[in-house]
Design brief:
mainly alpha; membrane; 84% helix; Stage V sporulation protein AE; transmembrane; 116 residues; single chain; SpoVA
Length: 116
Amino acid sequence: MIFFWAFVIGGLICVIGQIMFDVFKLSPAHTLSILVISGAILDGLGWYEPLIDFAGAGATVPITSFGNSLVHGAMQEAEKHGLIGVVTGMFEVTSAGISAAIIFGVIGAILFKPKG
């Protein structure tokens, strides 16, 4: 059943993004920003963790999870280190994923030739 709910929730997040493109004619940058901010707001309200528990990868794979990670890391580090923890917490939690994306992107660019 977890696969079903992951598919439904992940698909619903993607449908929301597609509606932003098609109906509201938002640019990819605006859509991306809105989805990241939505994930951040949901985590700030304490609603994103239950969504992750319910949907698993359906909630952790879409870009809304990035906003969740930023706020989650900032809040955890703020409790430990105060105001400076807000800044360091965002980078600490997300640095591995961002670094991996950069490294694999460079490797892909070296190994494969783009079709032009």
